[in-house]
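Quick entry, no commentary yet.
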Amino acid sequence: MKRTAERARSIGRGVRGMLAMSAPAPVDSTLVAATIALLGFGVVMVYSASSYEATVRLGDAQFYVKRQAIYVALALGVMWLARRFDYRKLRPFTYFILGGVMLAMAATVFGFGHRAGNAYRWLKVGPVHIQPSEMAKVALVLWLAYSLSKKADKIRTFWVGFVPHMITVGALTVLCLMQPDFGSAVVLTMITFALMFVAGGRLSYILASVSLAVGAAILLVRLSPYRMARWMAFSNMDEHRQSLAYQPFQSVMSFGSGGFGGLGLGRGYQVLYLPEAHTDFIAAIVGEELGFVGIALLLATFGVVVWRGVAIALAAADDYGTYIAFGLSTLLGTQVLLNLSVALAIVPTKGLTLPFLSYGGSSLLVSAASIGLLLNVSRHAHRAPDPISAPPAAAAESASMLVATAAEDGA
């Protein structure tokens, strides 16, 4: 009887552990706070950067900020929905999501795209402009997470663990380049290499692919007249400061004039000279109006987002969640670094937005969905794995103890 009582108490502890594991983890308040801070700051900066242009061109100083506020409200809704929907239920829809995004990207290339500047990156649905290349980034992360977790035991093989992933990212990259959208192609490639490395792919294959990708990028620049012209302008900005290098030159001046503490919110001068300052070059306005302090705080906030994303990846309940969290963290961090590098004229102009700050709906909604998925993975981090695919160890142990106890009592 004494042994039976001890086993009963042990079973009770096991059941209580299982119940604790099945309860959703508390929301990652640090990640939520950092995201909401970025969204709020983005609305303020969009108004500061766009009010002059909106007044001159449209007669309404609040035209852009009112739209951005609507996008932020929608983004919060998307983030909440993405957090509530169990990420593991996305597995059956992986190929549907990826295929739909690829069809939308193909539509922009083959006659259905809306032109802005010299690119066809948008699909126009009534008053709404959708940018499929933004959605492709999350779709690729979801597909890679699904594929890498499914092929865990064959990830180091060439034909199963390497080639299919290169073919998929290659197809998406070609569609981006045809729009053309060189920046998104770079981001997609970097996400793939990062996840392949995290998943334990063979390093020699990854390094060889990186070398080929760099060589292909150089070749694309040399064979494309407008890309080559941009590179030449970037290499000698003083000579081309009134033509192709006008935007990066003015952007660098904006950072320089901000100094340590900035000129003050709404007191910047580059909003008069920097075209589309509220979109890809909004970081330059932050640098001018809030100075080095503002940029440092902005980078620290983005650092918190990436840090929490990596922490969520390390605590995920399964490989699928780990790869999703790592991929989305890589996506957000890469876009921030590339956007700021362009604004500081460290790299040539790429046409990438600054997550949560740049004006526009597609980028904002995709970034919000990314945060929602990170919160979702975090929400299930302490739950037991799906019993269909991997029975919890605690449940197996408790079940075996119940059988042993019943057998002993029967005896």
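second:
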Amino acid sequence: MTLVEFAGYVPAVIFPVATLMQLFHLLRTKESAGVPALTWAAFALGNLCLYIYAEKYFELQSIIGQLATAALQIYVVVLILRYRKKTPA
């Protein structure tokens, strides 16, 4: 494995793990107060656009680091909106 390949795995691990931490927090607390849906939607859009721009459609680092992370971030947005509706105003 080259240094460049290794460097590709760093975000492929960090980004999904960071997103999973937020996801688990939402699932555990069932509250979305203070969690901005627009920010997580922007992260998801950014990851999708970066995947397209990088043109590395079949590399594991891109699939995990960008596509899988974007899917998790979209799920975070869905949970934020779902839990926000349940919060009394």
